[in-house]
Amino acid sequence: MIHVLFVCLGNICRSPMAEAIFGHLVTQAGLEQQITWDSAGTSNYHPGKLPDIRTRQVLEAHGIRTQHLARQVRNPDFEKYDYVLAMDQHNLRDLTRVFQSHPPARSKLELMGAYCEDGLCADVPDPYYGDLSDFEDVYQMLAPACQRLLTTICTEHRL
């Protein structure tokens, strides 16, 4: 089983959107018996809350639903997850500090932007203070990046 975790700051905008998109793709590919997915935040700002309404609106406009409840990254996540994908450099720095203080870990830490077209988007911007169009822009970045991530996982693990 391959485990994938998406991480942003508060776990209500970018990471649950990536989680929902990725889960939708995994399910469409019939790989839900080989791959699991989740998301979390580096902070504990919104524990137990649904994703931001704008995240849900954009996902639903694309035929994707989510019931994810926000949570903070925990130390055991670094033992469980094979891929931990940070939405931006700040999230990656926070994760790296925790990761280094709790070895041995199996997780591969990297930026979600590594899976954008030609790896051109280092950071997935936080749309929280923007409007619905900012959330749509994030969706347009994440959808192809999630597809590339899934393709990479399938190639690396011969799925």
Written description of the protein model:
With 159 residues, the protein is of the alpha/beta class. It has a single domain, classed as Rossmann fold (3-Layer(aba) Sandwich), CATH 3.40.50.2300. The chain is 42% helix and 14% strand. It contains five helices and four strands; from the N terminus they run βαβααβαβα. The chain has helices spanning 14-28, 53-61, 77-80, 89-101, 132-156; strands at 2-8, 35-41, 83-86, 108-111. The protein has a four-stranded parallel beta sheet. α1 links the parallel β1 and β2. The model has no long low-confidence stretch (mean pLDDT 93).
CATH class category:
Alpha Beta
Order of helices and strands: EHEHHEHEH
Largest sheet: 4 strands, parallel
Number of helices: 5
The structural domain count equals 1
Q: Strand order of the main beta sheet, please?
A: 2-1-3-4
- Which residues form runs of ≥5 with pLDDT under 50? none
Report how far the terminal alpha carbons are from each other. Answer: 11 Å
Q: Which percent range fits the helix content?
A: 40-55%
Work out the radius of gyration: 14 Å
CATH fold topology: Rossmann fold
Examine the secondary-structure arrangement and name the CATH architecture: 3-Layer(aba) Sandwich
This entry's quaternary arrangement is single chain
Counting helices, strands and paired strands, the structural category is alpha/beta
Query: What is the overall pLDDT average?
Result: 93
Which geometry do the CA atoms define? globular
Strand content: 5-15%
The CATH superfamily label reads: Response regulator
Number of strands: 4
